[in-house]
Amino acid sequence: MTTIGYVNLSLELWGCVMCGVVMLCLFLGRRRHSTCDRLYMQMLLCNIGALLFDALALLLRGHPGSVFWWGVRIANFIAFLMNYGLLASFVEYLTEYLAQYAKVPRMPMHIAQGLCMTGMLLVVLTQFFPLFYRIDARNIYHRADFFWVSHVLGILVLAVCAWLLLYCSASVAPQQKVCLWSYIVLPFAAVIVQMFIYGLALVNLANTISIVIIFLFLQAEQNRLAAERENLLTQSRVSIMLSQIQPHFLYNTLATIQAMCRGKAPEAEQATVQFAQFLRGNLDSLQASAPIPFEKELHHTQNYLWLEKQRFQGFLQVRYDIHTMDFLIPALTLQPIVENAVRYGVMKKENGGTVWISTQETEHAYTVTVKDDGMGFDAYAPKSDGRTHIGISNVGERLRMMCGGSLNITSTLGQGTVAVISVPKEN
């Protein structure tokens, strides 16, 4: 075997391993396999078959004996058939995939599959008449006079695929187009080169690379759909929770208590009003799927702090230094940070302390600073008070995901904590 032969053999065996790993990942994936998934598995099987039998033909060529004589012919025959089967499977896969997003005519698929069947028929005839290739008495493979026809048929099938993709281009996302075009452009280029240059098995290599690209896209698509399902599930849980809370009943009840306190207990009346507003802000925040005006988040935090001041009296002082409110911020971002400053900073101090809330506008961002002179604490350590908290790490993650922001916290034990929210202007 020549050096090129060993290179081809190595590439084809590598392709088999790659396709086998991809197939195993899909087979073990804990999800219901769609029609597109099954067709993709069919593509993998055809590609593995084409690679394995082409590699077998390489190993058997040039050896005397009836076993090698039959082996070379059978291996080449199956490799050619598998390549046409791969093309036919891809056409059907492409049609089914595009049908999820647009109305796709079936006639192009039938035409392409007819071309593949024609190619398979010609491969059968090649076993009796040297149309595509011939094998001499020394078991050496040679291209025949009509070998070019085998590649022309493949080019026509790829042209049909290109037409289908262009026809549905408006309904397909850019990343989907890149993925699907890879299986048209790479094999097409390999076929053109291989028609004129005999040596490296470029078509097999292009097929394998394209299939792996599609797999990577499938994984990304699966992750995206899983994230969407998780988001929908979270929203449904929130909706169920809100329906169980029955906020209108709570508001009406608080309004009744407020009316009962009117003229008799002004402080209790005001506390009821503040609590109702705080409760409404919390419930509204649970339903917010996009950043909200900072002014709204600040007002919600002020309601919380008013209630805490009534509870802790002179032990809690609050200072505001607000220079700007003209920006958006994820809901329940400022209030959880302030709550941590009160509960795990100031209130841990024997004589209480002060919480400062300030905002600044810089050239590139808006910043919100929450500072306290409490005991200091580990902002990322889990709380052990038996209550449910919106973790600081969760706040930082939502800032990053929803507006490209960041949360930086510094804390010194016995001196206090500083938390800085930064929201880039460009987002």
How would you explain this protein's 3D organization?
By secondary structure, this protein is an alpha+beta fold. It has 2 domains: 3-231, Up-down Bundle (Rhopdopsin 7-helix transmembrane proteins), CATH 1.20.1070.10; 315-424, Heat Shock Protein 90, CATH 3.30.565. 64% of the residues lie in helices and 12% in strands. The protein contains 12 helices and 9 strands. The protein has helices at 3-28, 35-60, 66-98, 107-126, 147-167, 174-196, 202-245, 247-261, 266-287, 294-312, 334-344, 392-403, and strands at 133-135, 141-143, 292-293, 316-322, 328-329, 353-361, 365-372, 406-412, 416-424. The strands form 3 sheets. A 5-stranded mixed beta sheet has the order 4-6-7-9-8, covered by helices on one side. Helix 2 packs antiparallel against helix 7 (202-245) and helix 6 runs antiparallel to helix 7 (202-245).
Which key features would you list for this structure?
five-stranded mixed β-sheet, Rhopdopsin 7-helix transmembrane proteins, 12 helices, 2 domains, 12% strand, two-stranded antiparallel ribbon, Heat Shock Protein 90, 427 residues, elongated, alpha+beta
Structural class: alpha+beta
Q: Give the CATH topology of the largest domain.
A: Rhopdopsin 7-helix transmembrane proteins
Strand order of the largest sheet: 4-6-7-9-8
Task: Kindly report how far apart the N and C termini lie.
Answer: 60 Å
What is the class of the largest domain in the CATH system?
A: Mainly Alpha
Q: Which descriptor suits the 3D outline?
A: elongated
